[in-house]
């Protein structure tokens, strides 16, 4: 089945292929921090913006960790992502490059602000949001030395992880670093636990859907991937990929029986004209992340030939910057036992 081939490729070769395409790209993106000063103008403290927002906007507890920033990265990020194929690849191949590419600027040097953060608040009068780092390629990450010296080892670790994730995510259609900042805060928070989804929970008869999104003329990659599955008397759609972007946790919508039945009939049968709208909510959060529009239409190919097309588009609340105007054409199929045997044994995330 085409879908299973794509899923397996995603877990292995496609991950590295997507990263290799962007090697050497230079766009000036970078991390920011909240810099507060004493009355004499000297720097009192520097906190990674990701953590400041996580604490004050999301309510997370982000404690200072023990050890140097290398140890903290290992404990708070690497160890938490070993079963997430795309992140484990980044950790193995690209995290060392980011670390080795750090170049600390001499005292007095500052970086121009990069407008990629989209923060939504004002700060106390003695504090400002400053550019901590500027990403000029995987081996050239410039960091303001005066700020780096005042950062805790935990904030330093968060900044390195921020550069790694934003390096990856900016090439999947995201236009601001807001999702990266929220994700970094969640990895370092002591009171947030990413949910998991294991392939072994899928059963024969469940439905797998995928789309291919154009990266550039003549080039394709996976767009959205989701599973439609039933457990006991509950009905779910679980997204593992949305609008071409990897998800850091499974995004799940639970559906009522009537809507779920209508959806399955529309996808697998000739029930053209079905149109549904629903929210996709992370299963360990009460914040609605996406509003999904799904339609099943008949595509006229000419000469009296037509085919059924499942289309999806999303209004992304957690992923600002995506184009939510265009539908993706989905291919959906029931999973057989042979298909299930081909799936990896590890968790997707």
Account of the 3D structure:
There is one protein chain. The protein is of the alpha+beta class and 349 residues long. It has two domains: 25-188, no CATH class; 195-342, Lipocalin. Helix content is 30%, strand content 32%. It has ten helices and 14 strands. Strands 7-8-9-10-11-12-13-14 form an eight-stranded antiparallel beta barrel. It is elongated, with a radius of gyration of 22 Å. The two termini are 22 Å apart. The relative contact order is 0.15. Residues 9-28 and 214-219 have low confidence and may be disordered.
Q: Could you give the order of the helices and strands? A: HHEEHHHEEEEHHHEEEEHEEEEH
Tally of separate domains: 2
Principal-axes geometry comes out as elongated
Give the tally of β-strands.
14
Whole-angstrom Rg: 22 Å
Q: What's the number of helices?
A: 10
Work out the strand percent. 25-35%
Structural class: alpha+beta
Walk across the major sheet and give the strand order.
7-8-9-10-11-12-13-14
Helical percent range? 25-40%
Mean pLDDT: 78
From the N-terminal CA to the C-terminal CA, the straight-line distance is: 22 Å
Biggest β-sheet strands, sense, barrel: 8 strands, antiparallel, barrel
Instruction: List the uncertain runs.
Output: 9-28, 214-219
Labels describing this entry:
349 residues; 2 domains; Lipocalin; 8-stranded antiparallel β-barrel; 3-stranded antiparallel β-sheet; alpha+beta; 30% helix
Structure described in brief:
By secondary structure, this protein is α+β, with helices and mostly antiparallel strands. The chain has helices spanning 2-11, 13-21, 49-56, 69-78, 85-100, 145-150, 153-169, 178-188, 257-268, 337-342; strands at residues 32-37, 43-48, 102-104, 127-131, 133-135, 141-143, 207-216, 219-231, 234-242, 245-255, 274-282, 290-302, 305-316, 328-334. Strand 9 and strand 10 form a beta hairpin.
């Amino acid at each position: 089945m085409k879908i299973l081939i794509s899923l397996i490729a995603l877990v292995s070769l496609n991950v590295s292929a997507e990263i290799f395409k962007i090697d050497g790209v230079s766009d000036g993106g970078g991390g920011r921090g909240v810099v507060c000063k004493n009355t004499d103008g000297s720097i009192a403290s520097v906190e990674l913006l990701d953590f400041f927002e996580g604490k004050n906007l999301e309510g997370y507890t982000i404690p200072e960790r023990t050890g140097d920033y290398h140890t903290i990265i290992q404990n708070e990020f690497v160890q938490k992502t070993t079963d997430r194929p795309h992140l484990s690849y980044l950790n193995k191949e690209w995290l060392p490059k980011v670390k080795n590419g750090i170049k600390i600027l001499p005292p007095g040097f500052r970086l121009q602000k990069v407008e990629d953060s989209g923060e939504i608040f004002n700060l106390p009068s003695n504090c400002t949001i400053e550019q901590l780092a500027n990403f000029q390629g995987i081996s050239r990450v410039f960091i303001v030395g005066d700020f780096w010296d005042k950062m805790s080892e935990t904030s330093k670790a968060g900044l390195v992880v921020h550069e790694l994730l934003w390096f990856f995510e900016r090439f999947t259609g995201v236009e601001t670093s807001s999702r990266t900042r929220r994700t970094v805060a969640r990895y370092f928070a002591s009171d947030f636990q990413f949910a998991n989804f294991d392939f072994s929970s899928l059963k024969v008869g469940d439905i797998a859907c995928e789309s291919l999104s154009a990266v550039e003329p003549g080039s394709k990659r996976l767009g959205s991937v989701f599973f439609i599955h039933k457990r006991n008397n509950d009905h779910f759609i679980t997204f593992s990929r949305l609008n071409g972007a990897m998800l850091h946790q499974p995004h799940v919508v639970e559906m009522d029986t009537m809507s779920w039945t209508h959806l399955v009939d529309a996808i697998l049968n000739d029930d053209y004209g079905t149109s549904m709208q629903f929210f996709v909510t992370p299963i360990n959060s009460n914040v609605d992340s996406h509003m999904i529009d799904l339609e099943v239409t008949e595509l006229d190919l000419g000469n009296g030939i037509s085919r059924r097309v499942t289309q999806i588009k999303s209004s992304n609340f957690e992923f600002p910057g995506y184009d939510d105007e265009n539908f993706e054409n989905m291919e959906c199929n029931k999973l057989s036992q042979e298909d299930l045997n081909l799936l990896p044994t590890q968790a997707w995330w």
